[in-house]
Amino acid sequence: MRKSLIIPILVLLTLCFSSIAQAAPRVILDGQALSFDVPPTIENGRTLVPLRVIFEALGADVQWDGSTQNITATKDGNEIQLIIGGKAFKNGQEVPLDVPAKLINNRTVVPLRFVSEALGCKVDWEGANQRIYISTKGEDSELAKQEQLPQMKTWVKTITTSGFNVLHCVQQTKDGGYILTGHNKGDLYLIKLDILGNVQWEKTYAGSMRVNIGYCVQQTSDNGYIIVGITRPVVIRDSTGHNIIFGVGNFFVNDQIGTNTDALVLKTDENGVMQWIKTFGKQEKWINESATSVVATKDGGCIFVGEKDYEVGKSKAWMVKLDGKGMIQWEKTYGHNISNKFNSIKQVSSGGYILAGSTSTENINSELKDDFYVVRVNEQGDIEWERTCGGNLYDYANAVQPASDGGFVIAGKIQSFGTGEDMNALVVKLDYDGEIEWQKTYGDTGNEIANSIIETGEGDFVVVGAIDHGITTNYYRKAYLVKLDSKGNILSEIVYNSQTTDWLNSIGLCYDGGYVLCGYKNYGENENNVIQAFIIKTDASGKGI
After folding, report:
1. Which residue pairs from 197-206 have beta carbons closer than 8 angstroms and sit at least 24 positions apart in sequence?
2. DSSP secondary-structure letter at 415?
3. Which three-class secondary structure state does DSSP give residue 128?
4. Using CA atoms, how far apart are residues 306 and 292, in angstroms rounded to an integer?
5. Does the global pTM surpass 0.85?
6. How does pLDDT run across 80-97, given as a tens digit for each residue?
7. What is the pLDDT of residues 313-338, one digit of tens each?
8. Helix (H, G, I), strand (E, B) or coil at 306
């Protein structure tokens, strides 16, 4: 009898240990979950992660000497050296390690806590949820203080400086505050808030008789900001109803007035003082270029994406690498159809970038249709794979986010799976190689649009946008948030009710586990309507008002 019980118990123990070994810890860096092509592993109580992913995420320069199997990483005057299977050093002094760097499945993995703390970071382990939190600001930073707050701070702020403000992008900054961009009465708008939503400073950047719009902002390694968007001439109707266009880029051909839109890139210091501004585009009638999303690169430059016309009505998706002075280092175009555009770019922690947007072609009725367009590229912008997703009508990808399992999640709007002309919000999950794992639509009667998406520290996804909310045909567009599990199932959803028509454009994950959202409110339905930007800081459930 005793012998017969031993075998089931051993089997049970084997299964338990197997499940524990498969539960890879999650690594959260400054509030953002890192994704790895090879999952982290725990050995003798120490977490080992792929070398290049963690060093690049921490902003360190890394060198590998294959002949000596020596790894050298430098950042902010600190140098660490690791020898595969051997010793470790910080600034020339040997540091004892419980577990050395090693090769696992032909990949070099390094001890996470040692490399992070040696480069000046704060590391915390949450054993209950198998999560490791890394703060690049260190023990005495505002970030570290914020992580120790007894509860999440929630607040709402409306920008009332003029009758027309729109915010397109928000990001939490290294000091725990927030940076946002958009436009204010036709001028590019940049605003810095503190941790509680108080305005620290705000700037507008005007052009000579031009409309400037900021679509995306990112904090740079020097604590400044890089902003991308568009610039176009001002268009005013005269008393006869004809368009009069002011500003550089006007063209008069056979009494017809044409204009063009250019990509705009602006660099500021940490106080919003402009350091340089660049425009990119051809001075040709109806030929347009736009910059819609940007990532700051560790060399002090940036990469932006958008759309570039190659003839009237036809465009390529566009990717441009700039140096720290705004000079083009290289540019590439993508897409095989009539019209192609990128709306979002994110850096992938295992190297390279993921890009998402739309591509237009003809459907079975010889009518134009749009599909999701997703491209994975290396550091030089060379294609590793590209995918399209959609039906027979109009489907657009607005945002992309790398997932911590090594895959990618894309959010946008789709008409092909909806009812009639209505749009539904669509979220698509791809694996590391770009193959679809699942795709799901969200919404019912009316229109639902997903504009931005993030991954939480728990591996869930949070999407924001707008939803038609009301009865029968009396719809009011409302700000909308939906939280999904890793399979796309709805965990919760919130419609932010107000007395206005609302729209959310962007969501950011905060260091305290909550979210920051931005968009605009429309207080009217006629030409005298008032549009004001607003920001919501929520808790982890999405509740903030």
Report:
1. 197/155, 197/156, 197/157, 197/535, 197/537, 201/271, 201/272, 202/161, 202/272, 203/268, 203/272, 203/274, 205/266, 205/274, 205/277
2. S
3. helix
4. 5
5. no
6. 998 888 888 999 888 888
7. 789 999 999 999 999 999 999 998 88
8. strand
Helix/strand/coil (H, E, C) string of 237-296?
ECCCCCEEEECCCCEEECCEEECCCEEEEEEECCCCCEEEEEEECCCCCCCCEEEEEEEE
The rounded mean pLDDT for the chain is 82
Q: Are the CB atoms for 337 and 344 separated by under 8 Å?
A: no
Most distant CA pair in the chain: distance in Å? 100
pLDDT of residue 240: 53
**Among positive and negative, which fits the CA dihedral 322, 324, 325, 329?**
negative
Better-scored residue on pLDDT, 175 or 374: 374
The two tokens of residue 113 are 């806590």
Structure-token match 């990469």, residue found: 303
pLDDT tens, position by position, 2-29: 444 344 433 433 333 333 344 578 888 8
Burial of 109 (0-12, 13-18, 19+ CB in 10 A): buried
Q: With 90 as the cut, is the pLDDT of residue 228 above it? A: yes
Burial (Cβ within 10 Å: 0-12, 13-18, ≥19) of residue 514: buried
d(CA 484, CA 439): 12
The pLDDT of residue 13 is 34
| Terminal C-alpha separation, the chain | 63
CA distance 205 to 277: 10
Give the integer Cα–Cα distance in Å for 408 and 430: 5
Spatial contact of 476 and 468, defined as CB atoms under 8 Å apart: yes
Q: Are 69 and 84 in contact (CB under 8 A)?
A: yes
Cα atoms in the 13 Å half-sphere on the side-chain side of 5: 2
Q: Quick one: what percent of the chain has pLDDT higher than 90?
A: 39
- 507 contact partners, CB below 8 Å, separation of at least 6: 170, 452, 453, 454, 462, 463, 464, 481, 515, 516, 517
Q: With residue 112 as reference, give the H or E element that holds it.
A: helix 112-118
Q: Locate tokens 């568009």: which residue?
A: 230
Q: Is the pLDDT of residue 419 over 70?
A: no
One-letter-per-residue 3-state SS of 151-195: CCCCEEEECCCCCEEEEEEEEECCCCCEEEEEEECCEEEEEEECC
The answer to whether residue 393 scores a pLDDT higher than 90 is: no
Torsion of CA 47, 51, 53, 54, to 10 degrees: 50
Q: Which residue reads 């979002």 in tokens?
A: 344
Q: What are the percentages of helix, strand and coil residues in the chain, rounded to 5?
A: 10, 55, 35
Q: Provide the pLDDT for residue 508.
A: 94
What is the spatial distance between Cα 155 and Cα 512, in angstroms, rounded to a whole number? 14
pLDDT score recorded for residue 464: 95
Amino acid sitting at position 470: G
Percent of the chain with pLDDT over 70: 80
191-216 pLDDT tens trace:
999 999 999 999 999 866 678 999 99
